[in-house]
Protein: arginine--tRNA ligase
Amino acid sequence: MRILSKNRTTDYIFDWDNMLAFEGNTAPYMQYAYTRVLSVFRKAEIDEEQLAAAPVIIREDREAQLAARLLQFEETLTVVAREGTPHVMCAYLYDLAGLFLWLYEHCPILSAEKRRSA
Structure:
């Protein structure tokens, strides 16, 4: 991830410690975020097919930021494909992961759902 996060026209010095760090735009950080997303889906027993038709309720500013950023996926993918700039996708995914992880840590996603159904 760290290598792809750099523009292809800039030099990069390979460093294992830098590449395997858990902070910043690295593969371990992105894998951690992905694992947290899967954890939410698993614990909530969400049916992915029904998810697309589910209503979206936004209560927090950060939720709105995450939703807006998710809506930029197609545009980002188009830019990456057209211009051959994988670092743009890395930056997008890093921003997305940061927004999600903030919500994961500060907004009780699953407990809020349990309170609503009780």
Notes: The two ends are 42 Å apart (CA to CA). The domain at 16-117 is CATH 1.10.730.10 (Isoleucyl-tRNA Synthetase; Domain 1). The CA atoms of residues 39 and 45 lie 10 Å apart. Residues 112-118 have pLDDT under 50 and may be disordered.
